[in-house]
Amino acid sequence: MKIACTTLVLAAALLAASRESHAQGAGKKTSIYPIVITIQKGYEVQKDLAFKAALSAIAENSNYSYEKGHSAFHGAKPSQDPLEKAEEIYNQAFTKYDDLDLPGAVELAEKAMEKIELGAAYIEDLTLAVKILHLIGACHTLNGDLNAASDAFLRAYAINPGMKPDANTYPPDIIDVFDAVGQGASEAGTGGMSVKSSPDGASVYLDGIPMGVTPVTIDNILIGKHILRISKPGYQFFGSVLKIEKGKTKSLDAKLSEIAGVSRVLTEIDKLPGLIAGGMSSTLPSLNTIAKDLGVDQLLVILLSPGEGQIVSLNVLVYDRAKNDYIAQRSGDASSTSDQVLLPKALELSKATLVAAQTGGETGGKITDITPPVIGPTGGEEGKKGKKGIAKKWWFWVAIVGGLGLAAGGAYLGYAGATGQLGSSGPGGPGGSGDIIIEF
User: Fold this and answer.
1) Is 53 contained in some domain?
2) Which residues span the domain enclosing 384?
3) pLDDT (tens digit per residue) in 315-350
4) Does residue 42 lie within any of the structural domains?
5) Cα 245 to Cα 222: distance, rounded to the nearest angstrom
6) Residue 439 included in any domain
7) Given the DSSP bridges, would you call strands 30-38 and 64-65 parallel, antiparallel or unpaired?
8) 225-267 pLDDT, tens per residue?
9) In a shared domain, residues 159 and 66
10) What's the pTM?
11) In the chain, how many domains are there?
């Protein structure tokens, strides 16, 4: 009997240990990082959109994480996520609002917005910032200070004009004021900014929207505060809060801080467009080096091929470092280079490819034999509906540009190794958000 009991106890212990080990294994995420490849110059914004979609797809999949590669490219995160801290303070502010303590709610909401501004270099999704501004505007409206309410609502409108105050949270009068501010936004006035960086060729995002690469001039910006983020692979993120004044253009020259240890990654990324001419298998050695140096298990590779007019072909693949091969692939066309069309298409394909890689789903053929995609009809009806095959153009580009350098897919999220300061408080450092402009 003792032997039987001992056996049962041992079996139970082994089962518990097995379950714990399985739970730990199930919680481990596959590290992956996006690489966007394009041959033709002049598509930096579209490349940024594809990269943004890839990051979003990875973030939405609980089995994957991009943090390791992001840190390697743009420096390690600070110990405390400013977005998480801002959300914590925002929730406290909202509690004050529910208790009708409007001054207390405004005070806390403004502190939450400060956290967003201090994290200008790191925060890509500004949804929380819009919610905070809606809360500030609502409190000022209820207090009868329509000027202050208009300032908050105008800034929220500039970041995301399609995001209104929540009708389940705020009374109709608040939403009416927001709508009135939005309708009169064009009368508020606009200004501009001229952005340079050292080195140049860095991606510029204004309120989370890609605006091209440095040097770049941005016109028709609504007056008020805006969040600027600058990203270049191999350099720490740079962020700033800019105040735009009517009829004026602000000049900004961002000094980017280089991150040691990623030069070989950038060199290998530069090789990829030319290597594709020899077939996708030709890219495997470079991808292996990139994945190894970034310390990631896989790479989400997006091949962006612009065609005639606004057509863009997307080929999305997952490269696995252990297998040294592609393990999943999806492709499709976007009918426009605009963010409203390209971004959701790239997101859709990225999500589907990640699922295929995870489940071992169909890849659509031997991936290493993929040739540059063809857009539109390839037979006698070529040119129908304004689309033309671009296979010949692809090879023409490769023949002409050969080893054309690729600006690496700039990371849209991540944290700079040094943080800046807003006004006279907080730590400062090069490449962080220390160069925050609060007055023009």
Assistant:
1) yes
2) 31-75+260-401
3) 999 999 999 999 999 999 998 888 888 899 999 999
4) yes
5) 8
6) no
7) parallel
8) 999 999 888 888 899 999 999 999 999 999 998 887 788 888 8
9) no
10) 0.62
11) 3
